[in-house]
Design goal:
Layout lengths: L2 H31 L5 H19 L1 H5 L3 H26 L3 H7 L3 H13 L5 H17 L10 H22 L8 H20 L8 H7 L2 H25 L5 H8 L2 H11 L6 H22 L26
Membrane topology: Multi-pass membrane protein
InterPro entries: Diverse_Substrate_Transporter, EamA_dom, EmrE-like
Family: Belongs to the EamA transporter family.
């Protein structure tokens, strides 16, 4: 590779790596701005800010979606709303470090589920990596002592399973095959926001959107804007830009570093102290998911992953979040 080519590759990789960093920090950001009583309201506000920009940017292609594609995107939006709910309630009830590492199990669950559907047995190396990751999560959730996993840990585990369902649904639903990724993401987010808005009006579901917005202070709004602008819009458009300048696998590999940044942010900024047992678990999760990605790569086909609570669909392999 020439110096010029290497410099160009670095200039493409750096923004993608920044996306992985902001995704890793999104768990702390969500934890800072959200309480158990404001989950639905924060989700409405967070994605309500994003939707007008996505609609305005991609209006022409959005209008080109046919009825079957819209219905398919609507179904996927329902699944996506479940992911966001599990993730956000989960991060409220666990540490930012645990949230970021447990959700990375999606990278293990997805190939396992796909092998079950296709009937192709995963390799011994992948099964070993999966076992290592699961052991890591068990140790991670114990912290400094052996106790039952917290409610938040279990919710994050459920979110990882839900992401796996979403990824497989997107890869197998014929109605959404070949649809514009930006348009599909917009419809899915719109459907998810509609679900949050309806749920927030029901009794016993916490603060209304307007009440929660009125109670946010300046710091809360900064966290919310960070989640909306950087963790969603910035991430979406960087992926769209980068995948046209480099390979999807290279982008996916860089995005796969998200759990590392989640752990770094959780320990350095959130003050998480997982203890020696938890630290060992964190290292096992990171090693297992990295090994699992490598072992599964030869058999995996590319699938479309949605915008996260923080991210957007780019047609890449699952990199960590939706």
């Amino acid at each position: 590779m020439t110096v010029k080519a290497a410099r160009r590759a670095w200039l493409t990789d750096l923004p993608v790596l920044l996306v992985a960093v902001v995704w890793g920090s999104s768990y702390l950001a969500a934890k800072e701005v959200t309480t158990a009583q404001t989950v639905l309201a924060v989700l409405v506000l967070r994605f309500g800010v994003v939707l007008p920009v996505l609609v305005g940017t991609g209006w022409r292609k959005l209008r080109a979606l046919d009825g079957a594609q819209l219905r398919g995107a609507g179904v996927l939006g329902l699944i996506l709303s479940g992911i966001f709910l599990l993730e956000t309630y989960g991060v409220v009830h666990t540490s930012a470090t645990n949230a970021g590492l447990i959700i990375s199990l999606t990278m293990i669950f997805t190939p396992l589920a796909e092998s079950r559907i296709t009937g192709r047995r995963p390799s011994g190396a992948f099964l070993a990596a999966a076992g290592l990751s699961v052991l890591g999560v068990l140790l991670l959730t114990q912290g400094a002592g052996f106790t039952a996993p917290s409610l938040g840990d279990l919710l994050m585990l459920g979110a990882a399973v839900a992401r796996t369902v979403h990824v497989l649904a997107m890869s197998r639903m014929r109605s959404v095959q070949g649809a514009d990724s930006m348009s599909m993401t917009t419809v899915q987010l719109g459907g998810a926001v509609a679900v949050f808005a309806v749920l927030s009006t029901l009794p016993g579901t916490g603060s209304t959107t307007w009440a929660a917005a009125a109670d946010l202070d300046a710091g809360d709004w900064l966290w919310l804007i960070y989640l909306s602008v950087f963790c969603t819009l910035f991430a979406f458009f960087v992926q769209m830009w980068a995948v046209r300048r480099t390979s999807p696998s290279r982008v996916s590999l860089l995005l796969g570093t998200e759990p590392v940044w989640a752990a770094v942010v959780g320990v350095t900024l959130a003050g998480d102290r997982p203890g020696w047992v938890g630290l060992l678990g964190a290292l096992l999760v990171l090693a297992g998911t990295a090994w699992g990605r490598s072992a599964a790569a030869p058999r995996q086909t590319s699938v479309v992953e949605p915008a996260e609570p923080d991210r957007a669909d780019t047609g890449l392999e699952p990199a960590g979040r939706s």
